[in-house]
Amino acid sequence: MAFQRGRSAAIGVKASWPGFIEPALASAVDRVPAGARWIHEIKFDGYRVQVHLRNGEVKVFTRRGNDWTSRFKKIAVDAGHVRADLAIIDGEVVVPAENGTTDFSVLQNELKGRSKKIVLVAFDLLYLNGSDLRKLPLMERKAQLQRIIKDTDVQFSESFETEGREMYQHACKLGLEGIVSKVRDSAYGSGRGNNWVKKTCQQRETLTIAGFALDGNKWDGIYVGRRKGKDLVYAGKVDHGFDSTSAADLRKRLTPLIRETQPYAKKIARRGIWVEPKLLAEIEYRTKSAEGKVRHPFFKGLREDLKES
């Protein structure tokens, strides 16, 4: 069945096709901004993409402008139903989980085959039917974006006009990666700026030390695990958070516990110095993968007050 594309009144600035546009990037902040000038969106854990629709042809570009249409065939098909002859859409390719979270490692696994689970979450519209929209206020661009993707498989990234810190706390509680806050009436600016800012969630967990790694004779982190019943399941490698004192102390404590085999219930393809799972570590991290591995972990210290079960 032929798809009827819609036309709307001219908006933005009349302009020729610009080709790939350097994407806007969010700057990291320590505090979520407050006030009515800011809107807040969920931060997704996927591949940033720019989708080009041009006279029936769809191309999908990475953040650096590489053509990944062949890898994102489903995204190209989905975007082909957008109501526009010419459009440039900014968004993220993700694999959504049932609980609403997204996981980059799952996305990578999906891309090894012909994935049917990936979706495009669109959050900005830069060009539409002969008009450059980048100087329009963000909320106007998003309104046009929502209109042209309606009733397609392209998902719309909702904006929340709530208190930013409240939304951030809620996002972290749900296990999301964080939030992106944007100035509601801002123009689209390529590169990293202050009109878009991001705050990622940090989580903490007490995990069992299963081993450690050395680079030559230099400390190179610890391997950690999580108890599932009586089994110890691999939860990742922690490389950061150590200074010379803490590294030396850990090595001294772990050396008497060295064993020949991995303590994990399921062996992992890693080389390490394995230990009896007696010590517990407090680990701060941004999020967890679908397999339970901590992402961007940071060693906070040993839990002297707790015993390994």
Coarse morphology: elongated
Would you tell me which CATH topology of the largest domain applies? Answer: D-amino Acid Aminotransferase, Chain A, domain 1
Any idea what the CATH architecture of the largest domain is? 2-Layer Sandwich
Number of strands: 19
Tally of individual helices: 5
- Overall radius of gyration: 23 Å
Taken in chain order, the helices and strands follow as EEEEEHEHEEHEHEEEEEHEEEEE
Distance between the termini: 62 Å
Number of domains: 2
Beta-strand percent range: 35-45%
Major β-sheet annotation: 7 strands, mixed
CATH C-level of the largest domain? Alpha Beta
At the fourth level of CATH, the homologous superfamily of the largest domain is: DNA ligase/mRNA capping enzyme
Poorly predicted regions are none
pLDDT averaged residue by residue: 90
| Helix/strand class | alpha+beta
Helix content: 10-25%
**Oligomeric state as shown:** single chain
Name some characteristics of this structure.
alpha+beta, D-amino Acid Aminotransferase, Chain A, domain 1, OB fold (Dihydrolipoamide Acetyltransferase, E2P), 7-stranded mixed sheet, 6-stranded antiparallel sheet, 19 strands
Provide a quick synopsis of the model.
The protein is α+β, with helices and mostly antiparallel strands. Helix content is 15%, strand content 37%.
